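Q: I have 190 residues here and want to know how they pack in 3D. Can you give me a structure?
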Amino acid sequence: MATEQELSDFLKSVEKRAFKRCVYHVRDEEAALDIVQDSMMKLAEHYGDKPPAELPLLFQRILSNCTLDWFRRQKTRRALFSNLSDFDGGDGDGPADFDLLESLAATVDTRETESAEDSTRRAQIFYAIEAEIAALPARQREAFLLRYWEDMDVSETAAAMGCSEGSVKTHCSRAVHALGKALKAKGIQL
């Protein structure tokens, strides 16, 4: 069973990635913060007594469900209040100071030794990758982020998304091909 400290450490370790994942889905920073906070509260309230090894999958599933609930509420609001522009989905690109590949940053800080040109080029590549990930269809983006950003295996991703392992493989394959094609068109070779 997870202790309070283990639960707290787990939540701290996933908060930034969970927030960014939500921003990709809902394209609204405030809504993403609410969804992540709600997901964390639900995990703590309902599953805080589970073993620490089960927390990542439970949290991803809760986060997915909270995101879907948000979309359902938005759809209902738009249907009821279609003439109010306040309920339209935002087009926010996410926080400018949050780097998509922050968790993949090198352990050695090369910014002091690299030229301004190299630093700018690296930042432009990261933003281009981030923009292309955001442009993926929702299910492809979700599968891609869970598999390659959250480092979940196929079965864990399938459980978190509520679909078959074959669907996860299909979504990931399509996402990788779409990203590769889009980035290659921009002259970015990874």
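Q: Anything worth noting?
A: Confidence is low (pLDDT under 50) at residues 80-109. DSSP finds seven helices and no strands in the chain.
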